[in-house]
């Protein structure tokens, strides 16, 4: 259009930042070599740390579930020692996210249970949604039944008493 209206609209669209797109511009040879070497070195180390932390969390969840039936999980709260193990599993989960390069920034504090009995995490489209459960200290989660039947992740899910 005339009077620059169309140009202004196009310019404002270019100024908007898309949080789902990241353009990495490696301009110098040094940056390219550094990115290549660090990818080859750091990626396997991060994967190894993540796998070790997940296996340790799974083992602790299995230990915490020993002797509990599905009915016990639904009807009674966890014993004090099992709650301490659950807190340790939550800590390992936070470390797993940290090892993967995901950082959480918690601002403020969580409301007491009597003021806000429900914590809603939405829209369930990123890995950060699951990480909030670790940060919040494993509140009871609502999850489909099939997820709790998974041989590996099911133990971690069931240990949160969904």
From TrEMBL:
GO terms for biological process: lipid metabolic process. One of its GO terms (cellular component) is endoplasmic reticulum. GO terms for molecular function: lysophosphatidic acid acyltransferase activity. The chain crosses the membrane at residues 47-68. Keywords: Acyltransferase, Lipid metabolism, Membrane, Transferase, Transmembrane, Transmembrane helix. This is Phospholipid/glycerol acyltransferase domain-containing protein. The lineage of its organism: Eukaryota, Metazoa, Ecdysozoa, Arthropoda, Hexapoda.
